[in-house]
Amino acid sequence: MKFKKIAAASLAGLMACACVGCAREARLPVYERGEVETREADASVIADKVLGAWIGSAIGLGSGYEYVTTANNPGVNNIDATIVPGTIAYVAMADKYWEPNGQVCSGSIGVNVLGVKPLNDPRVSYNKVISDDDMHVDVLNQFIFRDNGPDVGAEDIAAAWDYYGVSDVGGGQTVTDTVRNNGYVPPYTGQSAFGNIGYWVTESWIENETLGLVFPYMYETCEAYADLFCTTQGDGLSLYLGRLCALMQCLAYEYEDATVIMEKAFSRMDHYNEIYEIYEFVKSCWESGMNWRDTCVKVVERRVNYTSIGTHDTAGFSISANAGMIFLSLFYATENGKTDYEEAIKICSLCGLDGDCTAATVGGLVGAMYGYEGMPQKYKDFINADTPYYNYNGRNSDEVGVSWGPFAYCDTNFPNKLTFRQIADLTVDNIEAQILSLGGKVEGEKYFIPEQSLEPMSQVVVSNAGFETGDTYGWKVEDPHEKTYLTAVSSVAHLGAYGAVIEVYGESEGRIFQELSLKKGNVYRAEIWVNGLNDREFRFYAKGGNTTVYRSVVNPLAGRHMKVELCFTAPADKCEVGITFSGMGEEDSVTMFIDDFAIEDLSGKRDYARTQVFEAEDCYMSDDSTPLKAGSASGGRAVNLISGGGLRTDFTGTNGYQVFRIYYKNTDEIMEQALLKVSLDGEKVATLPLVAQGASSTYNEGNFAEVCLAAGTGTHTLKLELLSYYDIQIDKIEITAGNRTF
Fold first, then answer.
1. CA 89, CA 8: separation in Å to the nearest integer?
2. What is the full DSSP assignment across 593-657?
3. pLDDT means per 10 residues in the chain (742 residues)?
4. Are 676 and 662 in contact (CB under 8 A)?
């Protein structure tokens, strides 16, 4: 495989060792759409901003006070900070803890007695940065782009986590083992239904926000890849915040006012969730003249109840609360249209909670705004372009100069040491590859970067999506038998203080739904979190006119929330979207908890004009695969696969990743999860789990599994093979361009 040569000669040997994705050498960055509009940018300015962002992130990492609590400061009664009732975290700390004794990066990373000594776990110290969960995957992502060229698919991310042996925390700690043992790729590696019990943890955000550096002014491509990478480790609010912060990092190339960056980034995001709610709350406090410490305390008072993590939240694990700290530090550090570098990092560091991660995000943003040359000199004296970043795995303690248990690192095939100049050069190479791939030009010291839209997304109005009003306002229940009930509850919630419980007693045709204004013909993705069911089937459906699309689901998780998604083309401008049950008898009963309903318009994000459809019965089949008539299937026919049976078809690849959808129907009443081996051009790239459907499921547009793979331009071969015991009936395969800018 050929790679662009990095400017630092010391990396030459490292470049030669990489082999991830070697089977796809023929993939070329050929843009398919002819001439594109471009904007001119100075290459040296972009490079300076990249270096500034990486070092700014490290400055924030070292400055932030992480989980300063009564538990890890026992017997200390004179900490000048606030403990919000119901928590153990010190927040809104006094200015005296910022650079005590004049030491830069004196935050509390790990267990520390505040004010007694600057650090006892020095991941960031003078002229040295050691791998942390806020940096190691960020750096790894640059290697993933380098190894695979400008086009990256879910299979490339999974292969990299395996090849480089990523050790991680939270949701990330399950990924490498899941890839190795099950063959899963994102998004399945990040979801609770497929074994990731830490899907709610913050890693999707803290380890992927620097993706925005790869896409200066290329907002839509940034969004597409942020969505793909963030699904590696998590789901829910962490996934949302990861997408948001990656776009904010991208916007930091263009704006020096963080309030503008936040506003523009949120214009591209769904507003019906707790992250946007806390943003609006912080903004209102800032606009009212409230000081930042009082705002910090009020954020914690509002958002300490992330029930998925139980008592840990009292120490400050709440994703929405930590998001609030990012937002308030950017608001309160901005005056007269310019965000102050040091003030932003300082405020975020002193807020507390997961302070090293929040401050690293803020440091990366202001670092890109100012660039390396524009950083305050004292920070450049502390960490500079030639400062080493150590990939600390416990085996290089002598070189690093510290000794503690390995925490977050890459265990194999990864350099023990990189300078920040080398990391920045690698990022610049990845930027240039994206520019060329998308139709731009690199000419000497000038970049001609493809223009991409930053128009606000069309928001789908959802009422009381998380039941946080404490009631069921905005939801409708209809059941001619009057045996279906919906009630808001505080006992079982996914996010926030409230969720809702659905109770069905006896024979029922009940529907629990909202009536939404959509645009006929647009493609939407609805999601809702469910808990319970006792192995009973339910349907997540969308209905417009006489057309109903649904996904028939059985929740395999005991006592935990699972996210259910439904993608559909709106059959009308007014649609019902909700939940219904079928096959209920007089003696039956169902109790199911629901929470956090959202719907997103995908029409502007994917290029549905470039969709290829392959009916299963028209594909090449193994001898033991059987075509059959099925009136509800697309084209009236489907193919039955038994264990070991398969299908094969050729398709046309494009730039970027493509979205592969496999439409299927289960043949057993309540069946085990089926597994489908997916191969491109003869090489296995993924194991795709086919979620168990219920007994009454039929062929319909809702029942499919989806994965994002990068085949590259030209003609390729897709092969599907059933690995599990139970028969599966395949209806059709759709392959869609993953982003309309590819």
1. 43
2. EEEEEEEEE-TTTSEEEEEEEEEGGGSEE-TT-EEEE-TTSGGGEEEEE-TT-EEEEEEEE-SS-
3. 31 45 44 83 98 97 90 79 90 92 77 49 86 95 96 97 95 94 95 87 93 97 97 92 97 97 95 92 98 97 63 76 97 96 97 94 98 96 96 91 86 96 98 95 96 88 92 94 92 87 86 95 93 79 93 76 90 95 78 92 89 96 93 90 94 94 75 86 94 74 91 94 89 94 90
4. yes
| Closest residue by Cα to residue 191 from 152, 156, 226, 230 | 230
Distance separating alpha carbons of residues 584 and 607, to the nearest angstrom: 40
The letter for the amino acid at 303 is R
Length of the chain counted residue by residue: 742
What percentage of the chain's residues is helix, strand, coil (to nearest 5)? 30, 25, 40
3-class SS at 613? strand
Q: Is 574 helix (H, G, I), strand (E, B) or coil?
A: strand
The answer to whether 269 and 276 have CB atoms below 8 angstroms apart is yes
The whole-angstrom separation of Cα 360 and Cα 65 is 11
Tell me the Ramachandran region of residue 489: left when phi exceeds 0, alpha when psi lies from -120 to 50, beta otherwise: beta
Residues 189 and 233: beta-carbon distance below 8 Å: yes
Closest C-alpha to 566, from 732, 693, 727, 685: 693
The neighbouring-strand residues paired with 678 are 686, 720
First to last CA, the chain: 22
Nearest to 637 by CA among 551, 732, 728: 732
pLDDT at position 19: 45
Sign of the dihedral defined by the CA atoms of residues 516, 521, 524, 528, in that order: positive
Contact predicate 460/601, CB 8 Å: yes
DSSP string, 33-81: S----EEEEEHHHHHHHHHHHHHHHHHHHHH--B--BSSSSTT-----S
The model carries a pTM of: 0.93
CB 118 within 8 A of CB 103: yes
- Identity of the residue numbered 573: D
Distance CA 208, CA 505 (A): 45
Which tokens sit at 30?
Answer: 């050929």
Residue with tokens 């939270």: 170
Output the 3-class SS for 219-265.
HHHHHHHHHHHHCCCCCHHHHHHHHHHHHHHHHCCCCCCHHHHHHHH
Percent of the chain with pLDDT over 90: 65
Distance CA 512, CA 486 (A): 8
292, 299, 380, 364: which is closest to 335 by C-alpha? Answer: 292
Among the listed residues 594, 656, 634, 667, the one whose alpha carbon sits nearest the alpha carbon of residue 734: 634
Q: Give the separation between CA 595 and CA 313, rounded to whole angstroms.
A: 19
Q: In this structure, which amino acid lies at residue 349?
A: S
Show the tokens assigned to 379: 């920070």
